[in-house]
Amino acid sequence: MSAEGIRGRFEGLFERDATLVIAVLGALYLAYILAGVAFGYELRGQLNSIANLTFFIGVFGMLALALNLHWGYTGLFNIGIVGFMGIGIYTTALISKPPVGDGAAQVGGFGLPLLIGVPVGVLVTALFGLLVALPALRLRADYLAIVTVAFSEIVRFTMMSRTFQTFTVPDTISLGPLAVNPAADTVGLGGGGGLILNYTNPLEALLRALFLWEPYLGFVGFVEANVISNNPKPVLDGLLYGIVLIVFVGLFYLLLSRMGKSPFGRVLKAIREDEDVANALGKDTDRFKLTAFVVGAALMGLGGILWYSGRGSITPPSFRPNITFFIWIALIIGGAGSNTGSFLGGAIFAGLLYEGPRYFKNLVQTAFELGDAPRNFGEAMAGFASLDPMPFILYTLDSVSQLRLVIMGVVLIWLMHNRPEGLLGHRKETASSVDLARPGAGGSTGKPAAADGGEEQ
Amino acid sequence: MSVSETYVRYRQTLSEEPLAIGVILVALWMVWSLVSGLLTGGIQISSLASLVWDGLLRGLVIGLAGIGLSMTYSILNFANFAHGDYLTTGAFAGMGTSYLIAGIGENSVGALLLVGAGGSVFGGALGIGVTTAPIAVAVGALVAGVAAIVLALGIDRFVYRPIRDESGIALLITSIGVAFALRYLLQFVYGAGVRGTTAAGSVPRVNVPAIDGTFRVTAHDISLVVVAAGLMLGVHVLLQRTKLGKAMRAMSDNEDLARITGIPTERVIRTTWIVGAGLTGVAGYMFVLWKGTLGFNDGWLLLLLVFAAVILGGIGSIYGAIGGGIIIGLTASVSVIWIPSEFGRAAAFVVMIVILLFKPEGIFSGRSTA
Q: Chain B residue closest to A133 (CA)?
């Protein structure tokens, strides 16, 4: 088997996936741009809408990829994702918030730069992942599910708790011979009011670290002078942050594909298919599961940090289990087990199910001059007495933010009935590291991933 | 077993299970702080009694809802995450009926059936309560059960039955979809607001004397106890006196074998849904009557506690579900003696996790499964 043949095969696979990704993303962006045209957006509005879409594609893609490591690769049924996200961002907030609580931001932090805060957040999430995984990985899949969702609720109760709302930090902490003078006055989780993220804007911190802040400000000035005159900075910030997120998605993707193709990843897939067999072949499956769970949890923590760190504030209600289920739906749309699928699922979920209904509502409202919606279902149904469906339609449109969750539920049911493997899931994968295709036959790029290569021999 | 053997075994357990030592230490600390609190007067016996009473009632609701979850979990072999929303649906349908009976004539039928969505009618003004409107409450409870049954059968027919042979995990994921769709449909129809449903002020109450004070027992407490105990007894008789219990046990062991021995499996499944969902709907109604508020999230918030109860008691055992429910309810209420009150539910989850780690088959399992 020639090296060229192998490369050709991978390229063939890559090209098909890349085409699919580009097609889906292209369709999504086109739809949003067209919607923007229909709304009569100026350039600024268009860019804003694109930045928003990119943000959600980025975060859902990233988190679906992280979940793919748990569920798609290893078969760990984790429905506590939002708990890990919350731990990540709350830790980062504690580390990086300025020390003194002022005005609206009642609780301070340790005032360290985000460059420290983010890695510490990821690390702490990983530790909590270990804490959950050590006892829980012995459990059956459905028990693991219940334990993880209970864990994420405990995390949320802790965020809301008055007990952890604020602590006063003593001026000097002596650890044996070492005396530390922490900068913080008060730290805490902020209780039900949450935390105000009054640290340096993460984008600014990143650009400053790369010495790109001044050039970026220059670029913003250029845009303001020539293209968009009314305050373009928030829009450009949003776009750039979206790009940063997409870069992170790429990094997640690279990490996970490398992992999946490595001997480590093959063991994970063996565990997913049959843990007893993997065990009988001499693999310490507990260790592999533990590592996979901790790495996945850390990635979820990072996902949480990237999602919320630029949002100004965080409150406990954002960390309800709903987010976990959103990410699950994204993964199932894309197909568990496939990294490309995970990202695609995240993008489709973000574009169509998460943001789409709201755009649809706005479109309808722009297209037709509609009156005020009834305040409740009773008034909506009252119209039918006089054969007037309008109040009902208006109420339905007005309730679109609830109804999109109904749509998500129905989509999930439909997928489980008709396409449980999702768009790209459960592709046959060769477990071998060498090409198994018959010499001479494997070189063609159109061949679908040598799916049955093993049988041809 | 001789004393030395036992001793060696315990020593082994202790060295192999660091978690077990932790659990034992925590338990000892709890006993010590409770006893010292009671002796020094830091904890009043009357307030303890009040917490226990509250926990018991909460536990009865959880147990009643847990019977259904436990039965479907064992027979259909999947954790039904939509179970909590069956409970909410029952509660809304039942409360709507109660509103209708209590307030017909003076208010619009729509507003009454929607349980006063958007603040159009108030339960307090209608005088909803077991003493003030007994017929409305009785019919409401009945309708709650029936509504949950109809819903469960419909969902089973169109959602679960087509994928009956799939793995438990596939069904679990599907049930998450059902839960989403149901919960937010409820919000769509009934609105997002949490409404008061009873005339809380006019519910008769007595102060039961405890040693150093009194704790309060209301008519709704009593009716919850009566209904829950009656239904639990009814299920017990149903499963002991009819062949249903045996057929269910056979099915949960091995469905194929059950079918070739002539058990009509689909009919057993349908009966299971009827019994389980009926109990769940009534539990939801009694829960709402007892606590006096109703929101579209109620069932979902209760669901994890119900799961905790079912796992605690051992999946498939209705006595386990009842016992587990009472333990979980007591844990959630009484734990505030030791920990801040916001962590009551968290304590119940921790109890569940500990049970899963040490005795995943549940504490009542292996006996008297029905």
A: B357
